[in-house]
Amino acid sequence: MLISFLFLLLATVCVAFVGVGLWVFSNHFLTTDIPAAISHPMRLRVLNCIFQLLITWGMIFEKLRICSMPQFVRFVHDLPPLRKHPDVVVKDLRFGTIPVKLYQPKASTSGLRPGIVFYHGGGGILGSLKTHHGICCNLCKKSDAVVLAVGYRMVPKHRFPMVVRDCMVGTIHFLKSLNTFGVDPARIIVCGDSVGGTVATILCQKLVDRSDLPKIRAQILIYSTVQSLDFQSPSYQQNKNMPLLSQNLTFYCWCGYLDISPSWRSAVLKGAHLPAEVWEKYRKWLGAENIPDRFKKRGYLPVSREPLNEAAYLETNIILDVMNSPLIADDEVVARLPEACIVSCEYDVLRDESLLYKKRLEDLGVRVTWYHMEDGFHGVLTTIDMRLFYFPCSSRILDAVAHFIKGL
């Protein structure tokens, strides 16, 4: 009887595994549209299919109340062993309860090195110190800098504003220990990809008045999100089904991190979650007219916003906090920020946020160095150490960032 039950259970699991695999294959591998400008389109197609398979299994486990989707995906993406880089010394440390990784060039130096505080991306629900290990190793080596990667607590147990708080704690610990790590206090850079870039610019804003700490010399924002209000910019429309970050996944991250019900999706996409006066107030920074026309050529249809849904507004107005939307911070704060290096990717739903923040900074006299990857997509930088799924664009991004750092 027991053997029959185990056999039936195994057969059920096998059928489920094959069924889910076939569903993902037919819905993503066969149907995903990869732009012609992307190098190695089949590579991206396969990578996206694997990613969607993990998300699908995660959703199944979440429905079965085994674990949440983010927990499952994080567990799997942290399984591969970390690749060793002979030119970099890596140490796992803790600043209080905050886990960090310290990367130092192995070669000796007679002087102090730049210090880079790195915050990993993942929408506040995915990513880890492990997924961005390759990025930090290469960044350390290419820029000859000390890199500190800061870990933070995530969904489902921890939501807004925990990411910013943990990163702030880790950053302040580092700023007070520069001598210990051989870092030049005049060359401190904060850097991040995706939501990590959001954290970087938020911390720049929060630390601008801290006279007791070394000043941040520069901020590096790699395909970052800087506003949580508008989901209908040209890049959202053009790239809503692009791997590896679709509009659907963006909205899932938005809801998960901010603890907002997904039931408000329709109201948010139609702009009914904010009053007309709020849209008008921030139009000077959010409006599509701030985006160069060349970025609208692949298609853009202005969307008329629907009348206010008061219930949606009451549950989502946390997005107006500058810790979620640093783009809308006051002029007197933004004008005092350090110079920026901004990297945007053409095939990214978040592309326009880089363009909007670039314009906002430049309008207030903040120096900006901008790199745009015509063949880039969201998450491409994390392929730097993936070998089979490596994209040359990832190396170009790191080379550009390293060049910027060496010029400080």
Automatic annotation (TrEMBL):
Keyword Ubl conjugation in the entry? The reply is no
Q: Which residues form the Alpha/beta hydrolase fold-3 domain?
A: 116-261, 312-381
Keywords in alphabetical order: Hydrolase, Membrane, Transmembrane, Transmembrane helix
Segments crossing the lipid bilayer: 6-30, 42-61
Tell me what this protein is called. Answer: Alpha/beta hydrolase fold-3 domain-containing protein
Its source organism is: Rangifer tarandus platyrhynchus (Svalbard reindeer)
Family per record: Belongs to the 'GDXG' lipolytic enzyme family.
Transport among keywords: no
